[in-house]
């Protein structure tokens, strides 16, 4: 399965490469948030692939019936090409007017999603906006990761976790890292091509 993962930054280089077909084909476009619906619609259309997404902390304008037909993964498990994708939206709630959750609120969402994953065949790919605490986050409140994500990774052992939120130019942040659970974590800020 070939995935185009995007988050946070609308990139003209990506649009150009998609238009001239230099990136090849994709089975799925995955958005980890903070991208506008028209940008995502264009990317998915030109990539000729279905779209799965979670909202980022700045995605307050999204509607429940996302106009371009993408699949909202928040709190859900959906299958694409035989792999099970699950998602959790938003970031740590650091101010009014964002898609944000307290650590306790996210813990409740994680327990619900993890239980469903555990009882129904697992999760292959976890799609989030924010990172797991201690794995690609930053010490400032807006960019802290969620503690509960670590528990979820240890519980259901997805092969891959995709997130955005922490821009690579904010600090010396690794694009990829391995979690002790065995999950490969990728910060897809901008865009990344992944093969599973």
Features:
alpha/beta; six-stranded mixed β-sheet; 196 residues; five-stranded mixed β-sheet; 4 helices; Purple Acid Phosphatase, chain A, domain 2; 24% helix
Describe this structure in words.
The model has no long low-confidence stretch (mean pLDDT 94). This protein has a single domain, classed as Metallo-dependent phosphatases (Purple Acid Phosphatase, chain A, domain 2). Helix 3 (103-120) packs parallel to helix 4. The strands form three sheets. The protein has a six-stranded mixed sheet, covered by helices on one side. A five-stranded mixed sheet has the order 4-3-2-1-13, with helices on one face. A two-stranded parallel sheet has the order 7-8. The longest helix has 18 residues, at 103-120. The protein is built from four helices and 13 strands. The protein is of the alpha/beta class and 196 residues long.
Layout: helices, strands, pairs:
Layout: E1 2-7, H1 12-19, E2 28-31, H2 37-47, E3 51-53, E4 71-72, E5 77-80, E6 83-88, E7 91-92, E8 100-101, H3 103-120, E9 125-128, H4 147-156, E10 160-163, E11 176-178, E12 184-187, E13 190-195
């Amino acid at each position: 399965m070939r995935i185009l993962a995007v988050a946070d930054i609308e990139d003209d280089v990506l649009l150009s490469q998609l238009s001239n077909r230099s990136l090849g084909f994709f089975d799925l476009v995955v958005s980890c948030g903070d991208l506008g619906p028209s940008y995502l619609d264009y990317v998915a259309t030109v990539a000729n692939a279905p779209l799965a997404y979670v909202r980022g902390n700045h995605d307050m304008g999204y509607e429940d019936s996302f106009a371009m037909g993408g699949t909202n993964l928040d709190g859900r498990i959906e299958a694409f090409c035989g792999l099970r994708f699950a998602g959790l939206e938003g970031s740590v709630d650091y101010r009014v007017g964002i898609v944000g959750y307290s650590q306790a609120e996210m813990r409740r969402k994680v327990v619900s999603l993890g239980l469903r994953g555990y009882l129904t065949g697992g999760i292959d790919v976890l799609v989030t906006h924010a990172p797991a605490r201690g794995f690609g986050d930053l010490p400032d409140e807006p960019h802290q990761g969620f503690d509960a994500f670590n528990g979820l990774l240890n519980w259901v052992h997805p092969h891959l976790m995709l997130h955005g939120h922490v821009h690579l130019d904010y600090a010396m942040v690794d694009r990829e890292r391995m979690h002790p659970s065995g999950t490969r974590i990728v910060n897809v800020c901008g865009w990344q091509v992944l093969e599973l």
